[in-house]
Amino acid sequence: MGPGLARARRGLRRALPALAAYAAVRGLGVLLVVGWALGHHIAPITRLGTLWDAGWYARIADHGYSVTDGLIGAHGIPFSPRAFFPLYPWLGHLASRLTGLGTAGGLVLVSWTASLLAAWGVFAIADRLGGPRVGRIAVVLWGVLPLAVVESYGYSEPLFTALSAWCLYALLRRWWLTAGLLCVAAGLTRPSATALVAAVAVAALVELRRGGARPWRSARARRLWRPIAAALLAPLGWLGYLAYTAWAVGSPTAYFHIQAAWDTGVDFGWTTLRWYGHEVTKLFAFGHEAQRHAFGRLPMALTGLAYLGLLVAALRQRGQRRQPLPLLVFAAGLFLVDFVNASPQPPIARFLLPAFPLLYPAAEWLADRQPRLIRPLLAAAAIGSACYGVALTFHGGAPS
Fold it and tell me: Which residue intervals of 211-264 are DSSP H helices?
């Protein structure tokens, strides 16, 4: 057994309690979804693997980028599958072929597997920074978020979180080429990989600064090509897909034009702030249907505000509990990308699912409390998340 495999086995054994806890809280959510689906004569895996954006991924997995739904979006622009990055549907197609589960089953299998890998990565980083107790709590927190049900959908967030977590872990271990390659894969998974690219670039710059003013003259010069290579590799997945889309469509701005069909763009947060203002107004629309819808979206809105508070807490940490710079850059980058997104329904709560470093301050705070206090709290959060997941899956709109 090579040293790398032995190290992975030791790490997995150390992470098993955290993974078991994650599987328990998410398993509760999945069981409730399955029970509700079967009770209403709905195929649960089909529902999880074709709901909202999952339907687009299923179409790409089956037909590539050649088939669309024929609908017209905002500004008269047709909806196009090219808005969705390719790695996740490719893996879903492969899983479907290898297992015979069908497209929806293949996508869900990839998501469930990626969720466990992501949970392992979340634990590995937290364990390195604060110990196994912090790691276990951080993993459970990730599994009981209000939109944690998305971790079980045929969505790309679990895969992106797994790739991001292990890329950041590789940066902490200075496994530069591994980090660069994982960032390439993340760039083929979601457009928000720009935050991970920034984290890799910042980590590489810090490493070069450690070599002195003229690092190429130092004794470490022979090793400095690795962080440089990682920084150069990092954006290739994201840039590669945008370049491919530009070539396929015949326009250098093709991807951004396609995204405009969903009425998205950049307005530096104005749409997000306006959405929050409208939601607050609707909460007081007594007797009106809008009030019921606003209460249904309240967990998502509050999650976005909680992420803001956690970001401030993470940035204010000092001493041994201050997170390494790549983690802060990644989390802040994701928050910034999502905040400035001009979407009519800002999907902050869902798009920030991969921003797991923001959970570490909360995990550290809980780790300092008595277990008899935090266990009921986390159990209640798991039940609430599971119930909200059922409501979102069968009665809500697109998760945002």
Answer: 225-233, 236-249, 254-259
- Picking from 303, 346, 312, 338, the residue whose alpha carbon sits closest to that of residue 195 is 338
Using a 10 angstrom Cβ sphere, with 0-12 exposed, 13-18 middle and 19 or more buried, the burial of residue 291 is middle
pLDDT tens-digit readout, 220-233:
666 789 999 999 99
Both tokens of residue 247?
Answer: 């070539």
Written as one string, the DSSP assignment of 277-342 is HHHHHHHT-TTSHHHHHHHHHHHHHHHHHHHHHHHHHHHH--GGGSPPHHHHHHHHHHHHHHHTB-
Q: What is the DSSP letter of 71?
A: -
- Alpha-carbon dihedral of residues 328, 83, 187, 324, nearest 10 degrees? 0
For residue 213, the model assigns a pLDDT of: 47
Q: What angle do CA 185, 189, 193 make, to 5 degrees?
A: 80
- Residue 294's pLDDT is what? 78
DSSP letter, residue 77: P
Binning pLDDT at 50, 70 and 90, where does residue 37 land? very high
Q: Chain-wide mean pLDDT for the chain?
A: 92
